[in-house]
Amino acid sequence: MRLIVDSNSIFAGIIKDKAAREIILRADVHLFAPKYLIVELAKYAAELQKKAVLDDAAFANLLTAVLEQIIFVPGATYEEYISMARPLLPDLKDVPFLALAFAIENDGIWSEDSHFMQQTAVKVWTTKDLLRLNLRK
What is the CATH number of the domain that holds 16? Predict the structure, then answer.
């Protein structure tokens, strides 16, 4: 399964959500995100570590494992789709994720964000939806 992964799904998997972390680390789920997600992760790293209640080494190991599971796509790949995605979402931070979904072959967006649920151009999967699929480990 090829999914565009929203920042909040990654943040949840890092902080505490066992189900989200399980999906992130599955071999049969291929996750894609705009490259700027790396910047977001760096920006919020201290806060994520604190909320995850992990020491420096454990957090670094978890973050490395998560980052290895995501294919980060440069803006040039989806930039031409930004204008198509913009009117569909009220939050500008979400637009690159939807534009990426338009730009590459995928099975939808993994998100719990209600903004994504309001648009109908791309299928949205919640964590519960993905767990119901009983994907192989």
Answer: 3.40.50.1010
pTM for this one?
0.91
Domain carrying residue 68 = 2-132
**Structure token pair of residue 122:** 């791309």
In contact, 107 and 116? CB cutoff 8 Å: no
Is 45 within a domain?
A: yes
User: DSSP state, 112?
Assistant: -
Is 137 part of any domain? no
Residue-wise pLDDT tens for the chain (137 aa)?
999 999 999 999 999 878 898 899 888 899 999 998 999 999 999 999 999 999 999 999 999 999 999 999 999 999 999 999 999 999 899 999 999 999 999 999 999 998 899 999 999 999 999 988 865 44
DSSP run (H or E) holding 5: strand 2-5
For the chain, how many structural domains are there in total? 1
